[in-house]
Amino acid sequence: MPESLDPIARLMATLAERAETMPEGSYTTKLMRGGTEKIGKKILEEAGELVEAADEPGDEGRNHFIYEAGDLIYHTLVLLAHKRVDISEVAAELARREGTSGLVEKASRPPKD
Ligand SMILES: N=c1c2ncn([C@@H]3O[C@H](COP(=O)(O)OP(=O)(O)OP(=O)(O)O)[C@@H](O)[C@H]3O)c2ncn1[C@@H]1O[C@H](COP(=O)(O)O)[C@@H](O)[C@H]1O
């Protein structure tokens, strides 16, 4: 298979391989050993850090925001790999939603009682 030019697809492939082989000396393996609970805790922590960074001013703030987004995306991909879900499946779900406003989708749902 030719190596993908897309760093997210490459990372996903690495994480899927980590989930299969669980090598020693890997941070991903450490997270996966803790299961959904450990990975989920990191996702919540990283999401909080991302939101905090969103309001930091200037170029430094912007760079920190990008850095935190990287952390959140990495940890989210770790959970996907742990659950044997590929990012292409998430992309397909987003493609399915393409062009449908969240407001339209919300209005199409049966009312909650
Ligand atoms: N993209 C990442 C990546 N982003 C963030 N991190 C790690 O995620 C952690 C972020 O958590 P924190 O900032 O809270 O750091 P910490 O306090 O040390 O974390 P904890 O011990 O509390 O969990 C840091 O250890 C980062 O190094 C990542 N670790 C790995 N990758 C990619 O995953 C690949 C496989 O990594 P390993 O499985 O570890 O070999 C690497 O080659 C990279 O491409």
Layout of strands and helices, then pairs:
Blueprint: H1 7-21, H2 27-33, H3 35-54, H4 58-82, H5 87-97, H6 102-108
Helix pairs in contact: 1-4, 3-4
Would you give an account of this structure?
The chain is built from six helices and no strands. It has one domain: MazG-like (Helix Hairpins). The chain is mainly alpha-helical and about 110 residues long. The longest helix is centred in the middle third of the chain and has 25 residues. Helices cover about 75% and strands about 0% of the residues. The mean pLDDT is about 95. The structure holds phosphoribosyl ATP. Phosphoribosyl ATP binds next to α1, α2 and α4.
Keywords summarizing the entry:
0% strand; 75% helix; binds phosphoribosyl ATP; 6 helices
Structure, briefly:
This protein is mainly α and 113 residues long.
Number of helices: 6
Give the averaged pLDDT, no decimals: 95
Run of helices and strands: HHHHHH
* Poorly predicted sequence stretches spanning 5 or more consecutive residues: none
CATH level-four homologous superfamily name: MazG-like
CATH class category name: Mainly Alpha
- C-alpha Rg, in Å? 17 Å
Bound molecules: phosphoribosyl ATP
* Basic shape: globular
How many domains make up the 3D coordinates?
Answer: 1
In percent, how much strand structure appears in the residues?
under 5%
The major β-sheet equals: none
Q: Please state the structural category.
A: mainly alpha
CATH topology: Helix Hairpins
Helix content: over 70%
CATH architectural label: Orthogonal Bundle
Q: How many angstroms separate the termini?
A: 51 Å
The total beta strand count reads 0
Keywords: Amino-acid biosynthesis, ATP-binding, Cytoplasm, Histidine biosynthesis, Hydrolase, Nucleotide-binding
GO molecular function: ATP binding; phosphoribosyl-ATP diphosphatase activity
Catalytic activity: 1-(5-phospho-beta-D-ribosyl)-ATP + H2O = 1-(5-phospho-beta-D-ribosyl)-5'-AMP + diphosphate + H(+)
Subcellular location: Cytoplasm
